[in-house]
Amino acid sequence: MTSDKETTSFKSKESSQNEYDGTSLDQVYKFMGFHGKKLNIAVACFSGVGFLLFGFDQLLMGSLLTLPNFEETFPSILGDTLHAATLTGAVVSIYEIGCFVGALLTVYLGDKLGRIKCMFIGCVIVIIGAVLQTTAYTVTHLAIARVFTGIGTGFMTSTVPVWQAELSKASTRGKNIMMMGSLITAGIAIAYWVDFGFYFLGDNDTKGISWRIPIILQTIFPILLLTVIFKMPESPRWLISKGRTQEARVVFSAIYNLPGNDPKVRDQMMEIQNAIELEAKANVGFSVRELVQQGPTRNFHRLSLACWIQIFQQITGINLITYYAGTIFERYIHLSPFNSRILAACNGTEYFLASLFGIVFIERFGRRKLLFWGAIGQALSMMALTISTWQADKQRAENGGGTQAGIAATVFLFVFNSVFAVSHLGGAWLYPPEIASLLLRAQTNALSTSCNWIFNFLVVMITPIAFQNISYYTYTIFACINILIAPMIYIFYPETSGRTLEEMDAIFNATPVWRPWEVVKIEKNMPRRGQAQSEDVEKPYTDHLDYVEST
């Protein structure tokens, strides 16, 4: 039940007028004319465009490397020497350094500016970076421009998952963020097909149209976001943490299609306020010291899990394939340039289609099962890639063939992408904001995202060098890493499916400091909010907003 103290603390009355358009709190508020399910769809679409941008940017440069005019414009990256391989890796991976910097900046700016303003900054910087890349004529110019684009993407990838999670119900949060993961792959697929289309300009391209237009096309996504960004709702949890409770009430009203003075809205706000007060008593506010200390809210435990799940995503080896699929098909599986590009585009498309299964499976099977079995499947795929690529090389050396083994290698490359798409693709972006404490959620997610980007950089940087030196044994390294990831998921990572963000607070608060693995058992034994209410019917509970169907 809602207490008088709660009503006083929020300083809101049922007859109050909201500050936006004079709509009283006994009515349902709207954003852009939407509320309930329609507004949830609008939020998901907005987030999706942000991750389309991420996927498009992530893949684009790797797919342009072997275009004739690109090689003519930047001849220093051409060739099979160690120097050329190192420079290629640097030009492609420097984007990740920019993303790393952008993610770190949101550690300090995320809670000061809010989610909407951080996304706005990210969009503007991406546009600047894209224009600079399009006008590049030297490797240095191109590299600096890619850093700019990366900084903007870092802002987006650190902020969008938090914003999406804080606006989602527990029952749909996983599906919503897995949908964003699917849209990363959609952006990747679009970039592959754009590259394939412009490849046909071939030697007739004297002005760099084949690579400059694909680069400038990435500005479409941030421009779309900028047209509506300030019309979208801010995170109600962030608003409450800043004392802007009236605005938070309006957002909850619109998201859940309930009047602002509905008891369910008041109880949800009270639960968030209680979490804030608990963290305030523990002196939790942003500082590096608070992040690396345990305390009653177990901040370092949560940060460690968030960072490692993002690191796991990168060291699975996914970007070995995502960035260099065309190069792998052409140089190491020995396919023609045309066949390599069309297979890379088909691989990107299949990657997207496979990711759609993750949207369905994430709530049905939970995070732990998908991440655990995903690591096992990825390890087996990498082992198979090692063997089939070895056979392709052997057959080619003996008789100039290797077609059958090359086909097998291609199949297992598709299999790896499919397994990853269902499991670690969206799971790594979903998990950090689900387990972070309220007042440190932006910082925890930003730091975990920065870990993702720095390991993304390392993988993309070393891949050309590794292939140059150890060839197909590169796959073996990632197979071993995936084998090690599986038990780490099983031992240390609790299930978050169906849990409210505030329930996860309670689970971590109950975990012993020196026995972090017990969080898994505590989560399994702790009743879920809806279950607890149904088992104790005499208690005067109000249904939690996360279990209310919006219309």
Automatic annotation (TrEMBL):
Compartments where found: Membrane
GO MF assignments: carbohydrate:proton symporter activity
Keywords associated with the record: Membrane, Sugar transport, Transmembrane, Transmembrane helix, Transport
Pfam families cross-referenced by the UniProt entry: Sugar_tr
Gene Ontology cellular-component terms listed: membrane
KW Membrane (keyword) present: yes
Coiled coil: none
Domain Major facilitator superfamily (MFS) profile residues, every copy: 43-497
Span list, region Disordered: 1-20
Bias (Basic and acidic residues): 1-16
Family matches, as InterPro entries: MFS_dom, MFS_sugar_transport-like, MFS_Sugar_Transporters, MFS_trans_sf, Sugar/inositol_transpt, Sugar_transporter_CS
Membrane topology (UniProt): Multi-pass membrane protein
Membrane-spanning intervals of the chain: 39-61, 81-106, 118-137, 143-165, 177-201, 213-232, 303-322, 342-363, 370-387, 407-432, 444-466, 472-493
Family: Belongs to the major facilitator superfamily. Sugar transporter (TC 2.A.1.1) family.
Name by which UniProt lists this protein: Sugar transporter STL1
Organism (species): Candida viswanathii
Gene: STL1_4
